[in-house]
Specification:
The complex is a heterodimer of chains A (116) and B (116). Chain A is mainly β and 116 residues long. In chain A, 0% of the residues lie in helices and 47% in strands. Chain B has no helices and twelve strands. Classes of the chains: A mainly beta (116), B mainly beta (116). The interface between A and B is medium-sized, with 32 and 30 residues.
Chain lengths: 116, 116
């Protein structure tokens, strides 16, 4: 079974530029998550989709971050404009969750973003 | 507020030593789930175990064991006879079942280095 695929693996941009990350979840997984992991910290949830609807985006900085999951499969996360503090690893995950909190998530290898 | 604390930032051991990683959590909910994930250098988070708040039985899986104590709000992880391949960052996480979301609240992680 193929895992969660993310691209690109690495990205370096200048502040105020825009960037987009792509994620393809495990086939059949209705729930998709984007987490931000700043160096030395644990991952923090940015947004959770159930199929193509948003379940939780309370920690997404909506003035600069946006995410979409068209057709309930692939997802893209965009940052525009980027700030230095956005430097982090962006992890995509998917699960068979039905919102009960008891389902393990499967993570991709992440995209390491460096904003200079 | 929900919070997970992993007080040990980094632990170094020599192969074959036993090592315990500590995790303390805070939640107001009575129904919740606790997880441990492993993050090797490749970056993806690998699921290790899930426990629900009503099951305080300790669990053993090969060289891994987990001790869940609600009285002290702790969910500690022990690796017996550590191996070099166990070197990674280990995260403890909390998920609350009643909020309709699977948001994982992670601790800051413990970096384990096992030397030959």
């Amino acid at each position: 079974e193929a895992g969660v695929a993310q691209s690109p693996r690495y990205k370096i941009i200048e502040k105020r530029q825009s960037v987009a990350f792509w994620c393809n979840p495990i086939s059949g997984h209705a729930t998709l998550y984007w987490y931000q992991q700043i160096l030395g910290q644990g991952p923090k949830l940015l947004i959770q989709f159930q199929n193509n609807g948003v379940v939780d985006d309370s920690q997404l900085p909506k003035d600069r971050f946006s995410a979409e999951r068209l057709k309930g499969v692939d997802s893209t996360l965009k940052i525009q404009p980027a700030k230095l503090e956005d430097s982090a690893v962006y992890l995509c995950a998917s699960s068979l969750s039905e919102g009960q909190g008891n389902t393990e998530a499967f993570f991709g290898q992440g995209t390491r973003l460096t904003v200079v | 507020a929900q919070k997970v604390t992993q007080a040990q930032t980094e632990i170094s051991v020599v192969e074959k030593e036993d090592v315990t990683l500590d995790c303390v959590y805070e939640t107001r909910d009575t129904t919740y789930y606790l997880f441990w994930y492993k993050q090797p250098p490749s970056g993806e988070l690998v699921f290790l175990i899930r426990r629900n708040s009503f099951d305080e039985q300790n669990e053993i899986s090969g060289r891994y064991s987990w001790n869940f104590q609600k009285s002290t709000s702790s969910f500690n992880f022990t690796i017996t006879a550590s191996q070099v391949v166990d070197s990674a960052v280990y995260f403890c996480a909390l998920s609350e079942a009643l909020r309709g979301t699977d948001k994982l609240i992670f601790g800051t992680g413990t970096r384990l280095q096992v030397f030959p």
